[in-house]
Write a structure and sequence with these properties.
Radius of gyration: 24 Å
Number of domains: 3
Number of helices: 10
Strand content: 15-25%
Order of helices and strands: HHHEEHEHEEEHEEHEHEHEEEH
CATH topology of the largest domain: D-Maltodextrin-Binding Protein, domain 2
Distance between the termini: 59 Å
Number of strands: 13
Oligomer: single chain
CATH architecture of the largest domain: 3-Layer(aba) Sandwich
C-alpha cells in the first residue's frame, strides 16, 4: 500500500485484533495468520500513514491513542461485512438471520425458530443471548427483542405486549417462611431475595422490591436462568417473568397486596430489513408467538 492510499481491510483487521488481544501472537492466532505476518501488516500500515500506530512494551502491545479512529473504522467495516454475509442468498428465504434478546426469551424463541426452520430449511439462524444490548442500528443483529425503546430513527419498534412480573418462591421456602404463600408488605425487609446484577439490576423488578424494603439480597446474577434456579433452590424470593415460569412445579406464585410491575416487549429491527423475505419471516413468526405468549 502506497502513502496516501486508503488503508486496506487486511491491514485494519490486524490492527483491530491487536487492539482486542494486546499481542501480535494472540492477534495472529485470532486471525489464523503467523505472528510475523501480523507484524508485517502493522509495519506496512504505519509506513503508509507515516506514523506509529502501536506501542510495544514488556507488558504487551497497545494501540496508540491517535490510532483509535482506525480501530473504530475497522469495527465498522467488520460489522458491514458480517451484515453483507447475512444478506447473501437468493431472494427466497435462504441466508442468515441474527436475533438478539435477553436470556429469559431464549428457550421459547428457540422453540419458535426451530418450528420455522422445519418449514423453511434454507434459513440459517443465530440467536444471541446477551445482557448488553447489541446495536441494531449498526446491524450487529437483524432483529431484537427489547423491553425499552431506543432513540434511533432507523429502527422500527413494534409493541407486541407486556411482560408481567410476579413474586415467586420455592415450595421449601414457602413451607419454612411463608405459610399460605402470602407475602405481607411490612414483612418484606425480613425476607431473603434473589435478584439481578449489573445492567439487569436497573430493570423494574429490582426497583419495585427495593422500594418496598428489600435489602437482604442473598443471591444476585446477570443470568435470568441463574436467578430462577436460585429461587427454585430455596435461596429466597424472586421477581420472575410470569409467562416464563408459569406452571413450573418447584415454584409457588406468592400473593401480595400491591400492584406488580410489568415491562413493554418490543420487536425491533432496522427499517431497511422490512422487505427482506427471510427477515420478514422471522419477524412475523416472533410477532405471533410473542403476542400469544404475553397474554
Amino acid at each position: 500500500m502506497q502513502s496516501g492510499d486508503t488503508p486496506a481491510w487486511d491491514d485494519l483487521r490486524v490492527l483491530l485484533a491487536l487492539h482486542r488481544h494486546r499481542s501480535f501472537l494472540a492477534a495472529g492466532r485470532a486471525l489464523g495468520v503467523s505472528t510475523s505476518t501480523a507484524a508485517r501488516r502493522i509495519e506496512a500500515l504505519e509506513a503508509s500513514l507515516g506514523r506509529p500506530l502501536v506501542h510495544r512494551s514488556s507488558g504487551g502491545t497497545s494501540v496508540e491513542p491517535g490510532a483509535l479512529e482506525l480501530v473504530a473504522l475497522a469495527e465498522q467495516l467488520e460489522l458491514g461485512l458480517r451484515a453483507a454475509r447475512r444478506d447473501e442468498g437468493d431472494e427466497a428465504v435462504a441466508g442468515t438471520v441474527r436475533i438478539s434478546m435477553g436470556e429469559g426469551f431464549v428457550r421459547p424463541v428457540t422453540q419458535v425458530l426451530s418450528a420455522l426452520r422445519r418449514k423453511r430449511p434454507a434459513l440459517r439462524l443465530e440467536v444471541l443471548a446477551e445482557t448488553r444490548l447489541v446495536d441494531l442500528a449498526r446491524r450487529e443483529a437483524d432483529v431484537g427483542i427489547r423491553k425499552s425503546k431506543s432513540a434511533s430513527p432507523v429502527l422500527v419498534e413494534r409493541a407486541v405486549g407486556r411482560m408481567q412480573f410476579a413474586l415467586y418462591a420455592s415450595l421449601d421456602y414457602v413451607e419454612r417462611r411463608l405459610r399460605g404463600g402470602r407475602l405481607a408488605l411490612p414483612d418484606v425487609p425480613r425476607h431473603d431475595f434473589v435478584g439481578h446484577e449489573g445492567e439487569l439490576a436497573k430493570h423494574v423488578q429490582t426497583a419495585w422490591l427495593t422500594a418496598r424494603g428489600a435489602t437482604r439480597w442473598v443471591f444476585r446474577s446477570n443470568s435470568d436462568h441463574a436467578v430462577q434456579e436460585a429461587v427454585e433452590q430455596g435461596q429466597g424470593i424472586g421477581m420472575l417473568a410470569d409467562a416464563g415460569v408459569r406452571g413450573v412445579p418447584a415454584l409457588v406464585r406468592l400473593d401480595v397486596d400491591a400492584d406488580l410491575p410489568s415491562s413493554p416487549v418490543l420487536l425491533v429491527f432496522h427499517k431497511e430489513l422490512r422487505q427482506v423475505p427471510r427477515v420478514r419471516l422471522v419477524i412475523d413468526a416472533l410477532d405471533e408467538a410473542l403476542r400469544a405468549g404475553l397474554r
